[in-house]
Amino acid sequence: MADTEFLSNLTRFFRNQAHFDALEHFVIPELMKIKQTMGNTTIKIWSAGCSTGEEPYSIAIFLSEILPPLWKFEIVASDISLKSLAVGKEGFYSDTQIVGIPDSYLKKYLDKVDGGYRVHADIMSKIRFDCHNLQTDSLQRNFDIVFCRNVIIYFDEAAQAAVIGRFWESMAAKSFLFIGNSETLFGMNTGFEFVKTEWATLYRKFT
Ligand SMILES: C[S@@+](CC[C@H](N)C(=O)[O-])C[C@H]1O[C@@H](n2cnc3c(N)ncnc32)[C@H](O)[C@@H]1O
Fold first, then answer.
1. Contact 146/170 with Cβ under 8 angstroms?
2. Ligand 1: which of 51, 89, 147, 153 to mutate, most ligand atoms within 8 Å of CB?
């Protein structure tokens, strides 16, 4: 994957806390209302452009904390870089990399090992790491939440629109999309509705 080496894989645990606040106070309550009526208690999430795993692990830890008993979640974490995915699959992070994880979560969901920390197996088991180029259809469907943060910023306008169109196809009716703070769907012809919550802005697929 030498041709992907130039791409930024910069990431960190609990990046953009406001997104996690919106997840807790808006997205998850909305999804629970919607899915309960269908008798479906599993929330499907895609962390697209997950880099070395900090994003999907943050989501997994956070949902483990906030979801009521009987609710389950599963996360697909994809990236084009095999090197980054290998780090994610390993679940080991150095002392400097774990900055951003609140102490209480660190104690509860990671083990201190030589030179750093290892994510607990039950958190790792919630995530499936997958090599995927967002310029092609993942063929996966029915995601309730897609996180694609700080990824489309590297694409030109046409490629951004194509990727967002493919997310639409991969997402369930009544689902939610988080993009990065410096990214926008403004000016793009998409079906997504812009939602401004008390905590953060995001996009919603209604139908
Ligand atoms: C800056 S990181 C963002 C990581 C994480 N989403 C975050 O916000 O912390 C961007 C990631 O997008 C990945 N990426 C870039 N182009 C991609 C593509 N066409 N398909 C899949 N992943 C891609 C890179 O390999 C990199 O890991």
1. yes
2. 51
